[in-house]
Amino acid sequence: MSSYQSYRQSNAREWTRIKMLIELYGELERTLQRGIESDPAETSALAKHQLRAMKLFVAVLEGINPEHDEVAANIHRLMVFAMGQLGENTPAAWKSAHGIVSELLSAFRGIEQEATDLERSGAIPPLPQQTQYQLSVG
């Protein structure tokens, strides 16, 4: 079971904001990689990866408030650009989108421990406690 699948089945109290971001970006990165590796003649397979990637992009963008600060605005712009690359539907555009997502994922992984510590100390607000979360990107 992938960590993304375990996320979908886990208790919300076990997840931090940074862990959720890493899982979403990781699944998006894997989806883009599958699209890059798919046979161009298999248009239905590529369309499946494209649709999944678009859903994941929307899920990520939903969580970004570009008005919060300059960093959030820049990440939002990068993600909108990367999502737009899929509309070109060329190998170079998919690789461009993958590169952007990979760089952001690497950055989030680099701050994971610090962000977790900040959330546990209360400097970053924890995820709202709900009885149920539903991630609608599948």
How would you describe this structure to a colleague?
The longest helix has 21 residues, at 17-37. Helices cover 70% and strands 0% of the residues. It has 138 residues and is mainly α. Helix 2 runs antiparallel to helix 3 (43-62) and helix 2 runs antiparallel to helix 5. The protein has a domain at 16-111: Flagellar protein FliS (Four Helix Bundle (Hemerythrin (Met), subunit A)), CATH 1.20.120.340. It has helices at 3-9, 17-37, 43-62, 70-88, 91-110, 112-121. It is built from 6 helices and no strands.
- Alpha-beta classification: mainly alpha
- pLDDT averaged over residues: 86
Radius of gyration from the CA trace?
Answer: 16 Å
Biggest sheet: strands, sense, closure? none
Unreliable stretches, pLDDT < 50, 5 or more residues? none
The total of helices stands at 6
Shape category: elongated
Instruction: Tell me the series of helices and strands, N- to C-terminal.
Output: HHHHHH
Give the proportion of residues in helices.
Answer: over 70%
Tell me the β content: under 5%
